[in-house]
Each structure stands twice: as structure tokens, then as C-alpha cells.
Design goal:
The protein is 26% helix and 17% strand. By secondary structure, the protein is an alpha+beta fold. Strand 3 and strand 4 (106-110) form a beta hairpin. The relative contact order is 0.17.
Length: 123
Amino acid sequence: MNWLDYKNFEPHEFDCKHSGENKMRPEFMQKLQDLRDKFGKPMPINSGYRSPEHPIEARKTKPGKHAEGIAADIGVRGADALKLISLALELGFTGIGVAQKGDSRFIHLDISTDANRPTIWSY
């Protein structure tokens, strides 16, 4: 993958915090860059790729979308969270998770093609 195609993101932002691996998929990164272009503000990456051995993924019956390289959690809150969700829907993100309570506020975005998509949920 050519990280130069994603001018607002650096590979290290997406590295697994457990293993250091980074298996983000280009189709997701392009959609994320398109979102960043429309959003017009920085989008801090709280979590990008997670290896299947990452503690969060290991607790699951089957590793999730982060382990497939097609998901990221964006640190955003308030009116910016609403704007980000609106633009993500417009651009065709199929999974949107909303965590907007407490200190750890973020929006999960993914491009899964699972049968139950599109979907939105809260944490």
C-alpha cells in the first residue's frame, strides 16, 4: 500500500498497539481520506489495525473489522461527531459505532459488507 496516497494520515497512526502490525486495506484508507477531505479537520485515530491477538480482538468469538484492516476509531466529540457521522453515511461507510460518553469519545467507522449492513450502534 502506498501511504503517500493518504495525505492526512501516517502509517504509525494505524499500527496495532499490541503487536505493531499494520494491515490496513487500501479501499478503507481511500474512503477514510475522502472523508477527511470533506470533513476539513484533523481526525485523530484512536484505534486502527488490531491483530487477532490484540486483547480486544482476542475476547471476541471472531476477530472484528479492525482485524480485517477495514475499521478505525476516530477521536471526535460534540457537533464534530454529528458532522462526521453525516459525512460517513454520505460516503458509504457501512458500520458506524458511536461512543460519546465519558473521557473516551470516538466514532467507529468500517466498510464491512456483512449481510447486516449498513448499521449504526452505540457503545
